[in-house]
Specification:
- The protein is elongated, with a radius of gyration of 23 Å.
- With 185 residues, it is mainly alpha-helical.
- The model has no long low-confidence stretch (mean pLDDT 86).
- Helix 5 (61-67) runs antiparallel to helix 6, helix 5 (61-67) runs antiparallel to helix 9 and helix 6 runs parallel beside helix 9 (145-170).
- 68% of the residues lie in helices and 0% in strands.
- It has helices at 10-15, 17-23, 27-40, 55-59, 61-67, 71-90, 96-124, 130-140, 145-170.
Amino acid sequence: MTRLDKTFDFDAFIDAPNTRAFIGKNYDYYKKIWSIDCIKANRDPRRMMRMHWNWLAIFMVPAWLGYRKMYAHAAVWTGIIALLSFCEEFFHLKLSGGYGVGNFIFALLLKSLYFHHTVEFFEKNRHRSAQDLEALILERGGTSVMQAILATILCMGAIILATSLGYAMGQPTLAIDMDSANVPV
């Protein structure tokens, strides 16, 4: 039912009670935009990577990913930003403009990424019993303000740590000129 190939039945997927439960808050909104995307992609869900405005994600990608419980995506985003922060300090680069552009583009794609995340969840768990699947949907689906806060804190901590390490490791070493140091030999 959830495999993204020519046999994928988008209408059955989006109208399924489990899909509604997994999306949780704003189900009707996601159903509407994903239905339009599916039509624009000639009913081929593999091509459903469209851009959508997302105010929260424009400013706080990790918060949005945490809110939607997309932990692996949040970890990858945090890792990329932390690596860029480290490199910026270590190599004395100025990449700050790139953060804004990258954040903006990624934020525009998040709602489509969330569709693929939702489909992937059901694909990975298609062999579970109905009772197990319902329990997993309660655990991994829906939204969580607490997870949004936690993802933001972890991301900021990783960035601060990476920046500090890059700064500390990127400083030139102190070389002492033994001839001019007036050190008795």
